[in-house]
Amino acid sequence: MYLLKIYWENYKGGERKTKNNLVxxxxxxxxxxxxxxxxxxxxxxxxxxxxxxxxxEMAILETFYILCRKFTWKIAKTKINALKESHIIQIExxxxxxxxxxxxxxxxxxxxxxxxTIALAESINGKAIFYHKEKELEKAMENELFDVELIxxxxxxxxxx
Length: 161
Prior knowledge:
Blueprint: E1 22-25, H1 27-34, H2 40-49, E2 52-56, H3 57-70, H4 73-86, E3 89-92, H5 98-107, H6 112-123, E4 127-130, H7 135-143, E5 150-152, H8 153-159
């Protein structure tokens, strides 16, 4: 279990982060940050200036193995350690999320990792953020709304440019 203390800067212009700016970050975003995706700097800037980020241990696990496949074990380990040491995201254990994530998985045909991201968003009274809209998540949203706002970073950037 890891809990990382986060040091947050004030938003430019003096606006402080509020509860509305709490975000549960999916592994897709963590992978993008670590894999040098085109929107990496924009995402990191939002984490430093606007959002207070959280992720589940599952998101770290998923990020770790995907980075290992994309690069090497050694590079993945270095990138994950750098992410942890940056204190930009608070990593939450999944034990407090299991019941709600299981309920979401039972109700909707989406990945268990997505269920954990959404359950974490609910537990922090925040939003769930994914890098892009996946087909199964989009389909689940058409059938039934979630109890938290889902943000798709690629769409968010286009709307706020």
